[in-house]
Prior knowledge:
Distance between the termini: 32 Å
Shape: globular
Radius of gyration: 22 Å
Order of helices and strands: HHHHHHHHEEEEHHEEEEH
Helix content: 40-55%
Oligomer: single chain
Number of helices: 11
Amino acid sequence: MDIVTQGILGATVAQSVSRKEHVRLATLIGLVSGIIADSDVFIQSSSDPLLALEYHRHFTHSILFIPVGALVAFFLLWPFLRGKLPLRYLYLYCFFGYLLSGFIDACTSYGTYLLWPVSDARISWNVISIVDPAFTSLLLLGVVAGFRSSNTSYSRLGIVLAGCYLLIAVFQLNRAEESIYELAEKRDQVIEKIVIKPTMGNILLWRSVYLSEDKFHIDVVRVGLSKRVYQNVSIEKFDMTKTLPELDVDSVLARDIRRFEYFSDGYVSQYPGKPDILGDVRYALNPLSATPLWGIELNLGDENQHVKYNAYRYVSNETRRQFVNMLLNREIGD
């Protein structure tokens, strides 16, 4: 999730287990602790842009790292809070503030090393967007009410409501998935691999990308009281051996491409009209587009140079209009 929601979630959970006289301190401790898991964003290299991608949501998000992460938060906060509450409570609130950071990130589609080092699997349940105002608001209302009243009942209620929202999101995901499998059957296509994820800020509109016969097929499913599919864009799956047969497989460039493919779970295609750029086709600002949100730029003239990592975040008025029309169940061209 976004860093604001991470902090609010940590504050809510820590507040929910606090003693009445500690409610306000526990809330602040949980806020800081919930954010600390995202400190992995500082793991970067100026010479190797992909290093940041590899370590984002890595060991700091593992469930086995929770006690250590809580200890980091404890030592950061101890100089400011010593004497204000017993040390055992300081660590307790740090622990609960940190507790769900990895879990809530695994609920998104980005991929989280939730079981590291037992498993290197990037877990992503795809039930909620990285930014979801409704989910965040449920937690925020509860934690603010609890902070003002020193009553933990409000934060507990916020957690219950946010949990119910996630369950509704799971239901919505299943409905979207049913629609896509029905659509693929009508197209006489066999789905070899599929990802369905919510579009930004809602659980009503879902982006589907599935692989069939070396092509990614991109559709958008709106799951309201009734279901509607906006279809479809297709793009070739990138295959390094076919597209770049002369590339030395042991070169820095080839290794970087394989790293990006691993990070993107194999959902890699060439940027439309720009064959020297590879994109993660799972993500796009326009849900019905093959133009990626981020990608890597290849320098084929120097195979021993690292790729460049680029983000493509320009949102045109046409993209905004199409997104709103799909969200409101309109024809795209209306």
